[in-house]
Design a protein that fits this description.
376 residues; alpha/beta; Rossmann fold
Length: 376
């Protein structure tokens, strides 16, 4: 009998959770009968529809509107869903109310550290972080996307025997809509003139610490001018970061691209990828850059050391150590053969260990174990 799973997600997602669920739903085709319900009618919904995903919007009039719980309960009971699978703080909150109404296992995928999700906003952090913490305790099962994060959850009191690890996966089939490098740069107003291109894709909020990349860029540019840093993303820190770049007089070599929809085209255009977050789980930016054979230098936080083998398919630096980061950028700029070898090894590692198929198969295995557990 085919397992039926209802996925709940806010619908306003733009980061790793968005990519994860698109990839997961594609991988689960012909394996699980899966449907998504989201609560915001936004680009997430439109893109999911365009991908052929079974998705519906149950609109909320603000986060406090729990009228959607009745609709969800009727849907689950009438369609005989086996599992409710939540993604993100809004969906977790709704699930905590819904759980009282339906008799199926509830599971949530924890895509990031819930204590840091709202770090960029004082108000949201003050209100939504405690609500999410409370809601999370109501779930029957949890999915952590790294072994490191599972360990953290156990240390915070979550039951170890109810936590499964599922690494993010990526579709490794060839990309057929990659924008050629020169065209991508032209579209984004970048005149590279043959410079070495260092990229950074991240939401520009405090937890992503884009400032570390900018400070490293400043040191690199004191040594070499044949390099350009491309910063993709938007967030609460964007204006402050632009002011920092201007104050350092490096705006000719550090470009803000804003939100970039064509991530794979971005990675195709650059020579080296950076990720300087203070906290990460299992970031898609590393998987995506690896698919394009571009190695990454990243902070050794969260699950990143489970993704990058130091010196083989990338390099790691200490959190906030922008001086070390700058030296490692210069090191790879000097050794293009090593840069290429790392990129090739990064591609092969993702192909062998973090593919969409591997993720989907593991997810089905987890669902089967949950339904076989009679102690919910």
């Amino acid at each position: 009998m085919t397992i039926k799973v209802l996925h709940l997600i806010s619908g306003g997602d733009k980061g790793g959770a968005r990519t994860h669920i698109y990839t997961l739903m594609e991988g689960l085709k012909n394996k699980v009968d899966a449907k998504i319900v989201c609560f915001i009618d936004d680009t997430f919904y439109e893109e999911a529809k365009s991908r052929g995903i079974d998705i519906e919007v149950f609109p909320q009039n603000g986060r406090a509107d729990m009228s959607v719980v009745d609709r969800l309960a009727k849907l689950i009971n009438s369609e005989n869903y086996d599992i409710v699978h939540s993604h993100g703080a809004r969906a977790n909150s709704i699930s905590s109310f819904l759980k009282r109404r339906v008799n199926v296992p509830f599971i949530t995928t924890m895509h990031s550290d819930y204590l840091l999700d709202f770090k960029g906003s004082f108000y949201k952090n003050l209100i939504y972080t405690p609500i999410n913490k409370f809601s999370l305790k109501k779930f029957d099962y949890y999915i952590a996307i790294t072994e490191n994060f599972k360990k953290t959850l156990v240390e915070r009191g979550f039951p170890e025997d109810r936590i499964y690890v599922l690494y993010n996966g990526i579709d490794m089939s060839p990309e057929d809509d990659i924008i050629p490098k020169d065209e991508f740069l032209m579209r984004n107003g970048v005149v590279a003139d043959g410079k070495f291109l260092v990229g950074h894709v991240a939401r520009q909020d405090p937890v992503k610490n884009v400032e570390m990349t900018i400070k490293a860029a400043n040191i690199v540019l004191q040594n070499r001018q044949d390099v350009m840093f491309l910063l993709a993303g938007e967030g609460s820190e964007t204006e402050r970061l632009k002011e920092l770049v201007n104050s350092l007089n490096i705006s000719d070599n550090v470009k803000f691209l804003g939100f970039v929809k064509e991530n794979m085209s971005f990675f195709n255009a650059i020579d080296l990828n950076l990720l300087t977050s203070e906290s990460e789980s299992f970031p898609y930016a590393i998987l995506e850059s690896s698919k394009m054979r571009v190695p990454t230098i990243a902070t050794a936080v969260g699950g990143i050391p489970e993704m990058i083998r130091y010196g083989e398919d990338g390099l790691l630096v200490r959190d906030k150590d922008y001086t070390d980061l700058s030296q490692k950028i210069l090191y790879l700029m000097e050794d293009r053969d090593l840069l290429k070898k790392m990129g090739d090894k990064a591609y092969n590692r993702v192909l062998e260990n973090f593919s969409m198929e591997a993720m989907a198969n593991r997810q089905v295995e987890i669902y089967k174990m949950i339904l076989g557990d009679k102690n919910v």
